[in-house]
Amino acid sequence: MNTNNFHPGTAAVLSFIFNGLGQLYNGQLFKGLAIIFFSFINILTFLIASIFIGFWLLGKTVFANALGWGISLFFISLISIALLGIYSIVDAYRTCAKK
Asked: Rg (Cα) of the chain, in Å, rounded?
């Protein structure tokens, strides 16, 4: 039973707003910062992939494989963002519920 002032729902909502915030709320500084870092890397990769695809659509490709790299990075980063988000929400909720 949760015997402190921390609420599992609050932890889950914070992680839904941005990955890792629920872990920081639970006092898991290293885990929260690691999740935030990997979320940032995934979002950055997603943006770079979108730029590659955009350049290809505009006919201004920098190199021949821009579309292939763009599509590959786009889907890899999109799946990574979703999986890390789900993990962050579930982990924040469960960790807070155990306290």
From this structure: 18
The pLDDT score that the predictor gives to residue 57 is: 86
| pLDDT value of residue 74 | 95
Indicate the pTM of the whole model.
0.86
**What are the tokens at 75?**
């889907």
Cα 19 to Cα 90: distance, rounded to the nearest angstrom: 11
User: Averaged over 31-58, what is the pLDDT?
Assistant: 93
Sort 42 into a burial class: Cβ within 10 Å, 0-12 / 13-18 / 19+: buried
DSSP the chain: ---SS--HHHHHHHHHHSTTHHHHHTT-HHHHHHHHHHHHHHHHHHHHHHHHHHHHHHT--SSTTHHHHHHHHHHHHHHHHHHHHHHHHHHHHHHHHH-
